């Protein structure tokens, strides 16, 4: 899939006023460090990688295994958003229960592990979870549709678009700090922002 910002590389601004030392440090860590698996079991991580492959934007170099390990690292460190819906379990428990339930749904619907399903079957299983058309016994009160929207999709999309490869794809100019954005109107851009190729 071609991007309207082909040839744009946000990292060309590395030494410009767009990035400060704190931003460069955060990006260097994001680009250079692949955290080890420390929270999920191998089976859970395999399920998560297969889910990420279906939900993350298809960007070469932004692999499902990397995004999955970022989620694993967050959960290992106990770093979550700091809030959850009333009655929802803690993040580490929600992720483990949710992945186990998706695995159960794959076996219920297709008789096989989610990671081994073909692409259309993975899509069908995830659509069932998104719609809440699931076996409630597998979810143990977790709420399939809310797990899909509020946990899976939100986290995967958020982490994918935290990566400069995704920034390039959407023409994102980089963090607002320290330079800041001035032209905020519709279809307005600052001179240092990416321009669409026609």
Automatic annotation (TrEMBL):
Please report the name of this protein according to its UniProt entry: Gluconate 2-dehydrogenase subunit 3 family protein
Protein species of origin:
Methylocystis parvus
């Amino acid at each position: 899939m071609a991007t309207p910002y082909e040839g744009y590389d946000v990292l060309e601004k590395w030494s410009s006023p767009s990035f400060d030392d704190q931003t460069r440090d955060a990006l260097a860590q994001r680009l250079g460090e692949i955290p080890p698996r420390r929270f999920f079991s191998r089976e859970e991580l395999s399920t998560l990688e297969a889910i990420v492959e279906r939900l993350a934007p298809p960007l070469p170099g932004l692999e499902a295994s990397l995004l999955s390990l970022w989620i694993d690292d967050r959960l290992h460190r106990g770093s979550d958003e700091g809030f959850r819906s009333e009655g929802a379990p803690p993040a580490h428990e929600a992720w483990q229960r949710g992945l186990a339930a998706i695995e159960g749904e794959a076996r219920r619907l297709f008789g096989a592990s989610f990671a081994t399903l073909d692409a259309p079957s993975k899509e069908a299983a995830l659509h069932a979870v998104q719609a809440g058309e699931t076996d409630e016994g597998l979810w143990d009160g977790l709420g399939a549709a809310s797990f899909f929207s509020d946990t899976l999709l939100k986290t995967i999309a958020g982490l994918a678009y935290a990566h400069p490869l995704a920034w390039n794809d959407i023409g994102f100019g980089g963090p607002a700090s320290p330079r800041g954005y001035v032209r905020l109107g519709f279809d307005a851009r600052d001179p240092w922002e990416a321009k669409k190729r026609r």
